[in-house]
Amino acid sequence: MKLYDYKKLNEEEQYKVLWNNGILIDACLEGHVRKLLYAINNFYVELWCHTFTNKIIWKLSFKQGPLLEKYLTKYTLEINKT
Fold first, then answer.
1. Tell me, what CATH number does 25's domain have?
2. Which tens digits make up the pLDDT trace of 30-69?
3. Over 80: is that where the pLDDT of 3 sits?
4. Residues 29, 35, 40, 43: is their CA dihedral positive or negative?
5. Residue 10 domain boundaries
6. Is residue 17 domain-resident?
């Protein structure tokens, strides 16, 4: 599935695809919000969940850009040249 096709789905169908096909890549906690990054094929979905109620308060799907970069900067890549 491509991002364009995912965005054409209604919200219930998007969640079905996310739960069935999404791979949890990263999670972080900011105050009372748990941010979860999922990968689906060649795009990403970020969910914000309230930590007390566990309700989803925000969802956005994307391929690249600042939303993805904030996760990438958390990790360093070391290349050993032998």
1. 3.10.450
2. 999 999 999 999 999 999 999 999 999 999 999 977 777 7
3. yes
4. negative
5. 3-72
6. yes
